[in-house]
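Supplementary Data S3. Sequence and structure tokens for construct A.
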Amino acid sequence: MDDLNDDIARWKWNVTHTVEFKVETTWSRVNNLARLYFQIAEAAFLDLKNEEQNPIPVPGFDEDPADHHRQEKRVIAAAIKATVFSAMACEAGIYDLAAIQLGDKYATKVLDRLDVIGKWLVVPRLICGKSLDPDGPAINGLRSLVPARNKLVHPKSLPGFTDPSDEKQLQAVIDEGNEQMSQIISAAAPAVQAVILLSLELNRVMGTPTGALPFFERDVYSIDERPVGCPMNDLILQCRQIDAKAARKDVQKKHGT
């Protein structure tokens, strides 16, 4: 019994294990489309902003509404492309990251069982031992992007009016339709923003440029390459500020302040 007590006394009840993670900094891939998808989303976002900055007024009763209606369609089309292709960039980017760092077989057979939010949380942790903040702006942006994208790829039309003489019903149909279109338009900028925030936080957490998504850091991406007043510049600057604030918050968490 004394020998057992001596053994117990020598045991280490708290043991810290150090795990070494290997992060690939060079890679070769074919047909990785995340950057192209984002370029399409970015172009659509700029088209949307251009239309919004140059609105065609609602025509009067005796004026031709054709130009106004054509612009409305261009606005909706641009918003749809910005949202859907932003979501596609997120899907493609996280697969590429997993395939580069963990291997194609693992990325396909194991990680494909997760939804896109799960992938963005799990994959970085598997690679470097650290995860994106599940309550941070990047993941929250992705959480908003997914249902916005789903509404577009699984669209639900609305019932029209059945009695033209019923003004109340007619107005309700118009209001509901306008609200649906308004939601589509308002989702475009946050969709593009979500991609930028994911890229910034991913590279920060990994400690190296991953290449899974386009780069937006100051030392890689210069906003001076774009015209002054370009909406994309404003969005990138805003995202850098958001990510910097999130990074400071992470540091405070680690130090318990």
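Construct B, processed identically:
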Amino acid sequence: MLSLDRYEDKLSESGYRVFTISVEESKRRKHYYLGLEHIFYALTVVDENFLGEIFKELKIDKKNVAKLLNDFMMSSEQYIGEGMKITLQTRNLFKNAYDYAQSSGRNLIESTDFLMVMFQESNSVPTKVFKNLGVDSVIIADKIFQKMREKRYRSDENRRKYDLPYTLRQHAINLSKLAIMDKLSLVFGREEEITRVMEILCHIGRPNSAIIVGEPGVGKTAVVEGLVRKIELEPYNVPPRLRNKIIVNLQMNSLVAGTVFRGMFEDRMEKIINEL
């Protein structure tokens, strides 16, 4: 019997389409097992436009991809047994896709979540297809991640997430927005400090404000920017308490500027606190 344990009820509409199309394709070819090749075929149907953009940028002919995928599936062996077999690679794919969805703050697997983790299997049919075309699967995975990041930012929901309230927008820089747009520099050699800051921020039951002190130029800002990049670009390496959090750089010179009358500074601070 076809079963994917707890993942069958964790599929979004697009995720469920990938699942059903891949099963139908396996049955049509009389394979009677569900492998990554069937799921990748389904993804070329469900996410045709998304993959088309990636193929175009990497100068890959989608007809060649379809032909090689078909050739591999034509040579696949039929499963002889009861019901439909789920390969270990497919089970791992569903687990990794669900983990990725959760790390992104979602409880349902989207079709693009399968794409994000598809190329972790170095010996899978999809990986072999691109290898035969002279394209490293790492390049494909990186391009998918880049496109997903752009798509994530373009969405209306995330525009609301990254656009700050009025007063805060006047006096702060949204570091999270800069990170998702890949406008923060890479940070090297600060993993220990970044991990320590995350530990402090995740304390429950006692004060959890982190204060980074030091002489100018020692890398205080780099630690903060490294934390922001990790939250936005590597949510699976961040404690759940910090995921989907927005970090801003409050510009004190802007906050103080023009406060010529008593109470103006306090009024601005109060508005910012209320907007947080």
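Residues 137-154 form the longest helix (18 residues). The chain has a mean pLDDT of 85.
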